[in-house]
Amino acid sequence: MAELPDVRFLTVAEVADIMRVSKMTVYRLVHAGELPAVRFGRSYRVPESAVTEALQRPIADVG
């Protein structure tokens, strides 16, 4: 059996807390494809590395 890399998954609530946004915002990011996630049953788990990458992305200029 192949070894799986050490991937730490976070719950939507944990991601929301880290990013300082609501859980609904995290769900929107997941459904829009901007934040990768894996579905486990009825809940989503987001790789910690994806959250780190999302936080390091430059913010789009809205003006």
TrEMBL record:
Per its UniProt record, what SUPFAM superfamilies does this chain match? Putative DNA-binding domain
To which species is this protein native?
A: Microbacterium terregens
Top-rank taxon: Bacteria
Residues in Helix-turn-helix domain copies? 9-57
The name this protein goes by in its record: Helix-turn-helix domain-containing protein
Query: NCBIfam families per the record?
Result: excise (TIGR01764)
